[in-house]
């Protein structure tokens, strides 16, 4: 945070992670790697709270979440938002 204002990328990431967490919690189906997805979502949120997330670690968490959720189509949109928020931190997305 600079001057009391949160980096908009951090805000975007936290919002996307929160949405996917809520949708995952509300999803009635159990699947083997659900716990992994929940742990990695918590890790993403913690990294966002730090203010300067490590991009390789963000990407690793995203890959683990995507693999854990698999083909749960109901979570596809929220997962896409998390991916887009992680991509905001890549050097190529900065102007």
Structure description:
Pfam families: DUF5955. This is DUF5955 family protein. This protein is mostly helical and about 100 residues long. The protein contains four helices and no strands. The protein has helices at about 10-25, 35-50, 55-70, 75-85. Helix 2 runs antiparallel to helix 3 (about 55-70) and helix 3 (about 55-70) packs antiparallel against helix 4. The two termini are about 20 Å apart.
Low-confidence stretches: none
Structural class: mainly alpha
Q: Any idea what the radius of gyration is? A: 13 Å
Terminal CA distance:
19 Å
The global form is globular
Overall number of strands: 0
Largest sheet: none
Question: How helical, in percent, are the residues?
Answer: 55-70%
Q: Mean pLDDT across all residues, rounded? A: 89
**What share of the residues does DSSP label as strand, in percent?**
under 5%
Number of helices: 4
The secondary-structure element order is: HHHH
InterPro entries: DUF5955 (IPR045999)
Protein name: DUF5955 family protein
Salient structural properties:
95 residues; mainly alpha; 4 helices; globular
Structure, briefly:
This is DUF5955 family protein. The chain has 95 residues and is mostly helical.
Structural topology:
Layout: H1 8-26, H2 34-50, H3 55-69, H4 76-87
Helix pairs in contact: 1-2, 1-4, 2-3, 3-4
